[in-house]
């Protein structure tokens, strides 16, 4: 069923930017109850100009106007920001009580200005919102008019609490949330790897289960486009500078005292400067405003972790090369939701089966043609099974069966002296954890990604085509319920030099998005844009009338900034020297 949705005219007065282009990531609105009392509080308002290593720091105190702290039925954050000028996409993260709760990036602005809002359900972090603590929002931005880099990001962050009542009980919450963090009191709480993020933790002795959430994103010349990195074995078959080494396989690992506890294959996030910024305006790629997280059931390790001693929990990123090394850099962090027994008696038990190898099984194949064309394929699989018996102080016994099967293939082609490069990658897998036979974690995903890049034969421009699908059925932990997301996005465009100097270009982006959860909430959105103008936008599903859905772009507004294109944070191999 399709229902028309009125255009929401977003306040044109925010930060004095009038007629700003509304950017939005296609995503479901947060699922929150209606008809309950809500209380919204501003957390911060900050203009990020030259803000490198100068995050905004907020001393949070839990409000009591929507009931006792921790009694809320839901919590959402509202990030609304504006920017005008020319600027790169910037990474930003919010950490709270040293726990990263949101990783995002900034859409590149236009000269006339952009505005975007993203609403995020953060109910899983209720224990953090229930007590006073420090919130850090880092957004490392640089303004340098001499280089034409002028855009500042004006960010407003607010929190909304939904009061509980008889119909809507307080949200389920873990007993403790442990950070996987550098514990910085005044800087970003994620850590640059390699080598690794090691967090030394002591778990409560009566811990009975623990669920990890991991954040990971690739950055910089070599790792922002990690899926384009080429296996070492073939790197010297390519013209120099055509690709970065260390291959395209990336795996996020979680280890307990050096032993693998679980893995994830990351989603390839295209930030809004990815190769051609015009294709991501005003619709960023899936995940650019709310980077996906990865989940591992740590419960099998509870008998070890709850022994009262220190343990090292490690997050790292590996490749499928012989030395498993990656380039610099990835930013990683995470948290562990810990549940304790009703008694204070220590938990006992043991791992009864451990079948996992530290690294995946992988293979590199390829061919080199006489004309210099190169094809390289990297494939990998990994399986893991960990079983454990957990005996709580109260006597309750839990049999845990945690199992993962992940598979990966990436085919790269280089033609025309590597001026044309294509990548076809597919990461997919199934991870399930059963506690006494009941699924408490489940992550079934498929992430096909296809990027075709070609320089014009005369070198005067380039074309890029992106095609990617995020299909994921996810139960991250027992605090919530299964959601199913299918997000298909196709984007393409060109950038070319103008005879008068400068550059111009075009971009299109079509999206087909479906959300369905275990409670029957649904949301669909089909929206397409060409050269900044929405050509169609159809919204359906039970959440379609939600006042919280992401704002729509009034059709017909805004033209390309012909005078000055924003910068594409393309690595040197894309349109270099152009
Ligand atoms: C952004 O817009 C404001 C308000 O119109 C203006 O004063 C400022 O110069 C603009 N900044 C840039 C970098 O264009
Ligand atoms: C645990 O580690 C912390 C700091 O990393 C240290 O201060 C503490 O003494 C250690 N405790 C034990 C029992 O080793
Ligand atoms: C690379 O693979 C394509 C098919 O995808 C094939 O047409 C081409 O000949 C291959 N090139 C090389 C160098 O093997
Ligand atoms: C992984 O594969 C094995 C072997 O096919 C199977 O027994 C196991 O159930 C699979 N695990 C998951 C989570 O799909
Ligand atoms: C998109 O913009 C480019 C550059 O201004 C222009 O050449 C092209 O005709 C436009 N395409 C469409 C479909 O509007
Ligand atoms: C973008 O420009 C290229 C090169 O002129 C052209 O082939 C393509 O059709 C254009 N796309 C759109 C959407 O205008
Ligand atoms: C570019 O996207 C448009 C739809 O937005 C599509 O019609 C066209 O075929 C695409 N071009 C390429 C080369 O994929
Ligand atoms: C989000 O915050 C912005 C800026 O404060 C505000 O204009 C907007 O109405 C808020 N959106 C929702 C759904 O609360």
UniProtKB/TrEMBL annotation:
Pfam families (UniProt xref): PNGase_A_C, PNGaseA
Domain called Peptide N-acetyl-beta-D-glucosaminyl asparaginase amidase A N-terminal: residue spans: 30-356
Keyword Signal tagged: yes
Keywords, ordered alphabetically: Signal
InterPro entries: PNGase_A (IPR021102), PNGaseA_N (IPR056948)
Signal peptide interval: 1-19
Descriptive protein name: Peptide N-acetyl-beta-D-glucosaminyl asparaginase amidase A N-terminal domain-containing protein
Organism: Exidia glandulosa HHB12029
